[in-house]
């Protein structure tokens, strides 16, 4: 590793695994008006009971860590009631999201508003939590913010990403809730506002995840236009020019009517302009960017009624900035001007009547007690079959742990280089719980029960969109495997898992995702079983189909997930999610045949 690389990768942390928790504990230590929900990475206002008692709508947002001060920094009067943090650049698990919703809805009749950025992992994990909250009788609705103006193509993608405009949405919705507006009205205003907003980002240097190298490489004289906030590359690479020229490039791209995601902007329009530091830009540079952006807009007849410049949503230490524009009306302007004590603003948040800093407090999380106990789980497999399922799980998870570096390298092309970390984290947790063959820690004698356990591990340990997808896959399998255990039922379980992932994730076979491998395996398996092929041979052919399809994703156009935001020129290797499916399927086959 050269000196430049070593400098980029330096982080002043205690450990990679603990950095998110340490960050949240530091936040509440400075701001005793905030507390952590026990057992979860959730920050909540200490006066949440008073907010609920007042009959006001409560608001929760969240997402991956590494974007500080988003989102926990916006918890406070006039903005959010709670925020949920995932691992670095990974969506939080539904379990913690649901815990946050319960914490800010207990006894509430006004309801809960969930605000998320339009990223697949957030849509899946927050969507799961919202559905489970509704099933518990909680009044809840969700607003998805997607205001990215980078994409130029009208081809199918995962949609406009949610960027710094999400913070503006926190402010608007928080002010409306503080006024006592009903949930339905807040949602209507918020969804309309998302269509009147646009953001474009640009960076001079990439970020590096804790424990990893840079997410992509930029030459000393290069800058990247249209990137997201997870370290993924943008849509165009340019030579570095002056701040004035850079701002013109950014706003021209944002407002170009030839681009499918552009923001309509004309002379006479009244806007709010937010200049956001992506993490590594100096205050000197940010002030220059703000000056140039406002000057350019006003030179084109746009009336900048409100302007903000600071650090709102970061991408760790990425050097760069984003510009967000919002068309204003009287309601939105009033919301932006409303008072807030959220901690991302300079003043700390103190409990009512307290003037001195206190040690941070914690709040008990409301948990729903499961009715089924381990004693009620009965073996439905013979001892030989149980041992075989144990071997399959062990081989499959070990193969993913061993492939960690390979999967991370594949992911650097289209994402933040952490697919291997995410999947191996879940696989290692399964291995840890699996125990020995003689005394397994998972109910390997009951496929439905063990699938439910894998669902829980994927949701609570793996994190990110991968955790959400595998949770959906295992949850679906668990429900089907309660019926019987014929080869056809295993095939049906895979089919339902694929359908569920498609419904929540928005991807389809052919979009260059893990679905491609899963679908190839299912199609082949179903076909072979229908022809009465020996089940083991049918699975062998299914695994071959999954592997072949995984390799072919290298030439597929990405139309879902983070890869859909990256230029085709950057995508030369196979999709890491699809490769991961091929890896664990091949390992499972080896165990089955041994």
TrEMBL record:
UniProt entry keywords in alphabetical sequence: ATP-binding, Cobalt, Kinase, Nucleotide-binding, Transferase
Cross-referenced InterPro entries: DhaK_ATP, DhaK_dom, DhaL_dom, DhaL_dom_sf, Dihydroxyacetone_Kinase
Chemical reaction(s) catalysed: D-glyceraldehyde + ATP = D-glyceraldehyde 3-phosphate + ADP + H(+); dihydroxyacetone + ATP = dihydroxyacetone phosphate + ADP + H(+); FAD = riboflavin cyclic-4',5'-phosphate + AMP + H(+)
Enzyme Commission code(s) on record: 2.7.1.28, 2.7.1.29, 4.6.1.15
Self-association state and partner proteins as the record states: Homodimer. Interacts with IFIH1 (via the CARD domains), the interaction is inhibited by viral infection.
Primary role: Catalyzes both the phosphorylation of dihydroxyacetone and of glyceraldehyde, and the splitting of ribonucleoside diphosphate-X compounds among which FAD is the best substrate. Represses IFIH1-mediated cellular antiviral response.
Protein name: Triokinase/FMN cyclase
Lineage summary: Eukaryota, Metazoa, Spiralia, Lophotrochozoa, Mollusca
